[in-house]
Amino acid sequence: MNNKAFLSVLVAGGILMAGCGNTEEVKKEDKPATEQAEQATKEVDLSAELSTYQQFALEQMDQFLLDTEKFVNLFKAGDIEGAKAAYAPARMYFERSEPIAESFGDLDPRIDGRLADIQEEGKGEEEWSGYHKLEYALWEENTTKGYEAVADQLLADTKELHALVQTVEVTPDLMITGAVDLLNEVSTSKITGEEEIYSHTDLYDFKANIEGAEKIFEILRSKLEAKDSSLVATLDEKFKAVDDLLAQHATANGGYVSYEELTEENTKALAAAVNQLGEPLSQMGIILE
Amino acid sequence: MTTSNEEKFIHKKISRRDMLKLTGIGVAGVAIGASGLGGVMKAMGYDVFEPVADSTTASNKVNFYGKHQSGIVTPVQTNIYFASLDVLVTSKKELQALFQQWTPLIVRLMNGEAMVDVSTNSRVPTGDTGEAEGLDASNLSITIGVGPSLFDKLGMQHLKPAELKDLPHFPKDQLQKEYTGGDLCIQACADDPQVAFHAVRNLVRAASGKVEIKWSQAGFNSFPAGGGTPRNLFAFKDGTVNPAITDEKDLNEVVWVDKGWLKGGSYLIARKVQMHLETWDRTSLKDQEATFGRYRDSGAPFGKTKEFDDFDVEAKDEKGNYIMPDTSHVHLARKSGARILRRSYSYASGVMSNTGTHDAGLIFISFQKDPAQFTTIQNSLGRMDKMNEYITHRGSAVFACFPGVQKGSYLGEALFNAL
């Protein structure tokens, strides 16, 4: 109950901030002055859509915090099977709202960094933290021992992220670019099995990224209908094509098969469907003109 | 808590859909959607089938309109980007719409223009990918062909010419499916590698959801300063015996199809031929020349002094040996009696992961009025050809390239009129 009241206050705040975000964002653009002015006058009112999206993202983040807490508790209790089962579903909340979750430069790698990313930055394994380190413990080492502090840190970082996202400004660009970015995430790391190299639960992240993009499309649907209804029909068709393909790899318990079970033909078909969705999805910016 | 929120998330989506259904918006959207990707085309600014003229002012420009498609008897350019595509469209109508959409876009590309005029909305991706900006037409030619599998996929078998079928297996073929076959091809040749690639990239992008790229190969050709036949990566001149591209009569005999919907078109054969450069490079010059039956420096056939000197394959020396060895490439090819128009390019695509050798060779392309001409030559080369030691055929495809287009018409119109 308390939580609900808290949220509605935040949403109201969000609308105000989103309004500010718009003008500021136009100012920042590196455009000739005339073009800037033109764009500013033509700016479409998306305040309702922005607050709907903000509410969605905050709900996802609430849930991410709760599920991370559950995962960390199982992990610290030494329940390896329980923690493994909770791992991928908890991460889906993060993946669904990645455009928002990613806004905080330091926290994203602390929570979601892969060892390869850390090493790329010239850092050692000791600086590696977050979900993927616990993934390594569970699937590679088959233990939780010695990783308790990492689990505590993950929960602390998640709480910090949760507190920070409450202040995030949702702009039209964040939504529209975010939808395409979610698909790009799928195209570059999920489809190659490079996100979850120990647990091979990449298809959970894949599904969540797609759901995150679809949510943005749903929120913008009526604005898009007004501008180009056949684009909406195309997007419906292409989202369905991706969802149908993913459904072929679903398991009876509502999850997904291991990435290792996918053949090259499977991954190629999934990648092609995502690319065919990405091209029309990248046109959602037409509502801004 | 997890479950209840998950339900909430899903429930919201459903109620939103229901609302749309009630208002009728969703239904209207679906009906319009039947026309395929129309929405994206409109959004990207791709006009559907509005004829574009060949520019009269563009520099380094090859004309699109004419009796034949460009890129066949067009003077060979320095670069190729060849792409084999599979279609995703499932009806003849959609296929026709694709060619209608592509036709004016190809004219624009060959004019050295962007795919679409610049949009005022910078919040969406641009209709042209932009990397050819500031470059001229660079003698870009685009050649479109259809493969045998297309006719089977779209239920048009009755219009598939008997000549259009996959090539038979030849000795030493090691065909890999990732370089073989395809429903459609785009051959983009230009005097600039980026212009050629840009053309394929943008045509494929404009047809997102209608085609997908199956395999592709970039290639290059370099011409001596004074002109003349380019050399392949074995350092021999390639294409010496081609019919002259100005000899209408000869071309009618060798290149142009003279019947049916393909009249004025031609069959394109593409072969990805890996050349084993390391073994070639440790072969003596004498043996290299005996492999071809020509001198490397001049390109002249054995026993002659100039590249274009005619020769008699049956001629023998005083000891009774063939002047041009009967295992040489040129001897065997000439003996077949068949002729083709060769338009090949070299490629160098990195390193073979399994051997550490150069992944380099020839993207062999030939045009002929019947693929049997190529088959006859290849069968004559057979197991005898000394060249076999140094090459492996890795890819193969056959396409029927449409006749030329008159302004107001579109690529493949004769095929669709015959349906």
TrEMBL record, chain A:
Residues 50-284 form the Imelysin-like domain. The keyword Lipoprotein does not apply. CDD domains: Imelysin-like_EfeO. The keyword Glycoprotein does not apply. It is found in: Cell envelope. Pfam families: Peptidase_M75 (PF09375). Gene3D superfamilies: M75 peptidase, HXXE motif. InterPro entries: EfeM/EfeO_iron_uptake (IPR050894), Imelysin-like (IPR018976), Imelysin-like_EfeO/Algp7 (IPR034981), Imelysin_sf (IPR038352), Iron_uptake_EfeM/EfeO (IPR053377). Keywords: Signal. Belongs to the EfeM/EfeO family. This is Iron ABC transporter substrate-binding protein.
TrEMBL record, chain B:
Involved in the recovery of exogenous heme iron. Extracts iron from heme while preserving the protoporphyrin ring intact. Its cofactor is heme b. GO terms for molecular function: peroxidase activity. It is found in: Cell envelope. Residues 69-221 form the Dyp-type peroxidase N-terminal domain. It comes from the Bacteria. Its EC number is 1.11.1.-. The chain crosses the membrane at residues 20-41. It comes from Lysinibacillus boronitolerans JCM 21713 = 10a = NBRC 103108. Belongs to the DyP-type peroxidase family. It catalyses: heme b + 2 H(+) = protoporphyrin IX + Fe(2+). Keywords: Heme, Iron, Lyase, Membrane, Metal-binding, Oxidoreductase, Peroxidase, Signal, Transmembrane, Transmembrane helix. Binds 1 heme b (iron(II)-protoporphyrin IX) group non-covalently per subunit. This is Deferrochelatase. The keyword Oxidoreductase applies. Residues 229-405 form the Dyp-type peroxidase C-terminal domain.
